[in-house]
Write a structure and sequence with these properties.
- The structure is a single chain.
- By secondary structure, the chain is an alpha+beta fold.
- Helices cover 35% and strands 25% of the residues.
- The chain contains 5 helices and 8 strands, in the order ααβββαβαββββα.
- A hairpin with a 4-residue loop joins β6 and β7.
- The radius of gyration is 24 Å and the shape is elongated.
């Protein structure tokens, strides 16, 4: 008697399937939604790091040089930079700058002449981080992994291999 009342027509089966698929999609996307909307930003956010301190880079490309990790050793293309590869990568990983607010960025904008793009590929992440760098007279303006701008003071030879400048 009870089962006779639950007899489903085609239209009701379609409704059941739609609800089930929607529920499944919600369950699959729940971890991402929880991270994005319910959890507070982690402590490292806003500290001025250029590269993501929680991710391990496996490749960095800029200035016509490709640095890549192979069997735990940093290598470079062209190979003449192999000796400096690990030092350059460690300097990139440690770069921290002074956050620049929107107003200061707008004031600096007329001084931007040439930009440089640095591609950073991370382990288990499909798209690279693209760092935009504007070399100015006394410092560089760099975009960070969390879409901020930071001012960093350093000599060019700290991040560029010595003979590329």
């Amino acid at each position: 008697m009870f089962f006779n009342r639950l007899r489903l027509t085609r239209r009701r089966w379609n409704t059941v399937l739609i609800v089930a698929i929607t529920f499944f999609m919600l369950m699959v996307s729940a971890p991402t939604l929880i991270k994005q909307y319910l959890l507070e930003p982690s402590a490292h956010m806003g500290q001025g790091y250029v590269l993501d301190p929680t991710a391990d880079p496996i490749e960095i490309n800029y200035a016509g040089i490709q640095f890549y990790l192979q069997n735990g050793v940093w290598r470079a293309i062209p190979e003449k930079w192999d000796a400096q590869a690990s030092n350059v990568i460690e300097r990139w990983r440690g770069i921290r700058g002074t956050p620049v607010d929107v107003e200061t960025y707008q004031k600096l904008r007329p001084a931007f002449e040439t930009s440089m793009t640095i591609e950073v590929w991370y382990q288990d992440i499909e798209e690279p981080q693209r760092v935009t760098a504007y070399p100015l007279n006394k410092f560089w303006l760099l975009s960070t992994f969390d879409s901020q701008w930071v001012a960093v003071s350093f000599d060019n030879n700290q991040l560029l291999p010595e003979r590329t400048q």
